[in-house]
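Researcher: For the record, we're logging two predictions in this thread. I'll number them. Prediction 1 follows.
Model: Prediction 1, sequence and structure:
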Amino acid sequence: MVTMSFFTYLYNLSTSRKSKSLYGVNPSTQLGPKAALCQDATLTIQDPSSQKLKWCKAPINALVIRKPGDREVDKVYKEVIELLVSKNLRLYVEEKTVDDMELSAQCVSMLTQYNGERDNLSDKVDFIVTLGGDGTLIHASSLFQNSVPPILAFNMGSLGFLTPFDVDGMGSAVDKALAGEMSLTLRTRLKCVIGQKNESDCVPHIKDLENGQTHKSSRLASYSVVNEVVIDRGPSPYLCHIELYVDRRHITSVQGDGLIISTPTGSTAYAAAAGASMMHPSVPAILVVPVCAHSLSFRPIVLPAGVEITIMVSPDARNTAWAAFDGRCRTELKHGDSLRITTSIYPLPSLCKRGQLEDWFGSLAECLNWNVRKSQKALDLELHSNTTTTNSSASLDSLADELTLT
């Protein structure tokens, strides 16, 4: 089990005051005059404004990840390296990304190149800086299957829904982050385990299976997902026919183009395009969204965080299914295979520019043009009053004439 002591940071959930809900104090556990929750039960609704970063020790090692194939990013990449080195941080950078870069001897001495597919950075990195878009942030998450260091994401991509910081204010943002003067959004991730022909049944709940652990079988593959898991029919012309279970109970059979299991963060991505509601990333939930279901009554649903979802190819299916994890690691699900999904205990800590709510509503407006339309013109009150009076008088005269004729 990876413990928080491996990292030099923690999330300060407002230790200077009691945890408060959005509506006041924590919900009462007293249920009427004679009932209450069990003593070991907890009921906490965390106030997003209380989630702030605090460094237990000064960060030493930083990871810098950049979007490839962009000359503008190349220029900023060098500036970020020089800035972080000037803060006495040792840097991890991807292999070959600095080979053609002119850097001072001091910078070169502070750099360590790594290979994402080979090297494990879990207990080495204290702080992450990304230069790119949402895909760059998701790539950074994929490098840490367990606990993730705080991420400072600069928007240099196409959309930038998850990357709130501008490179123009890079120096100020880095200073505030290193000083611990920023809020956090703890983005829920999904823990996904694929087992072949009931091999994962040896684990009662996949929350007990550490990511990367095989647990008596080398064929159990696990992934941590920021946005969504997509199960589809692949290249087959037939319907995707899969069985959906929640906490080992059969819920329904899914027939259609596929199924999306999404985090609240992913609710503004593929899930939104498939008709799901957009949810704030702090909401503890899992979204189940059908893709072109072969039933008009199959609508998206929201499940509580922590339940375990199991997906299996139906015995009556004419074809296999395919699963993709944040658009990567595409894997075929054959008859008898199982895909088990639950909420990961390791969220993605994304640093906020203004605050949880401000950043999210800002991204909705700027990136998705949420509820953008031309405003309705205001009424000319004087003209409207005269018109209403005239129409009312005309109506009364007409009614009087009708009564007279009668």
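Researcher: Logged. Prediction 2.
Model: Prediction 2, sequence and structure:
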Amino acid sequence: MAGRDKATNQIKEWADAQKAQDQLTTGTGAPIGDKLSVKTAGPRGPLLMEDFVFQDEMAHFNRERIPERVVHAKGAGAFGYLEITHDITKYSKAKIFESVGKRTPLAIRFSTVGGEKGSADTARDPRGFAMKFYTEEGNWDLVGNNTPIFFIRDTIFFPSFIHTQKRNPVTNLKDPDMFWDFLTLRPESMHQVSFLFSNRGTPDGYRHMNGYGSHTFKLVNDQDKAVYCKFHFKTNQGIKNLTGDTAAELSKDDPDYATRDLYNSIGDGNFPSWSFYIQVMTFQQAENWRWNPFDLTKVWPHSDFPLIPVGQLVLNRNPKNYFTDVEQIAFSPAHMIPGIEPSPDKMLQGRLYSYSDTHRHRLGSNYLQLPVNCPYMTRVRNYQRDGPQCLNDNQEGAPNYFPNSFQGPNDDAKYLEHAVHYSGEARRYRTDDDDNSTQVGNFWRQVLTADDRVHLIKNMAGNLQGAQPFIQKRAIHNFSTCDPEYGRRLEEALEKLNKPGSSCSHL
């Protein structure tokens, strides 16, 4: 039928691929004779408890939903591979990088961050860019975003920050006072807020945006020499963003715009791809750099730490089933492989715990046995046993304790983590007075075009207008420290919007 895309035709294409119609069964595999009515005592009598066909389906239906992700609830996924095109073995011994031409299968999930599962794909929000690489030495999860920075640098703020992105606990509405009060009280957020309210905050689907590991990581080579690094994925489709007005229209007309675009692109054979790069910083450079290299609110300038090419990421297969392949996929920054390790980045350190913990709550303690999460390129052998919904052979008769004398799996010192020396008092170190403005000013003056700055001020002022006047003044002050013009133009835009009779744009 003309005018129907791949996503719209999915069920028709599935039907055309079937050779015959299957026999309908219960969950136990028993064939069903009649699925058009319940079993009752007479034509008008009550339902019989013995009707297992009904009970089986209804009981399962009541349990179809699993807990929604606290963040990144709305998303789309795909599968593909990473092909290595350049040798970086001098930096990392990870098998995924061991030879030029090597391909590693992967799964990816794109998402918005703050919205619920039914929210619009085009909302002004960072985008999740989470990758799972199925390697011979286990799964490596690189759980990033479409921005190289984030709103905060100390993980203790994360729950409060997310609360301000969600709903007021009384009104159940998005609240501009909550949103802007927190952000203006934490001026380290200005860098990411500036990204967010530029048109970069509304990318044109998932194919036309970059991806970043965002955090600082550590690479270790086969000589046990280490460097710090950042991961970058540059879209080969070209950067395309939506204006605020276009994004708002699409949120009404096609709230699943990005999901549909990704599915149709892959379904039509137009496989999206990204060029993979790293930045490298030595330990000595990290010690002497003007900024904290583990600060997630700052970038490493490419002029100081140039991009080093690594490979190509290609997406060439859509999910076979959304729930099993996308809703149940579970990423954690703690899922690393030999040759890739964490840095002291406080936000990364907090995520190492929280992501795996939330998956155990959302999917169960055996979530790594689900097919999409299973490290199928290697063989899992450990001393973990049992738990709800164990999906594999539970390691059969192997010993379930360590150490043992009965051929249970053993450790190997060659896989020990890289040793790093740390010193200092164990206490809480606040970072309020770190340089929060220099890189934001550089972004305003050197990265954004004149047109970009017009959109940024329009988008930000329209949103900030809904907050209390004292919060607006605090925001103006904060952005003025980055660049006087930035603060002045924001103030002028707010004055126009705040005049009686002006329209008010809320969150």
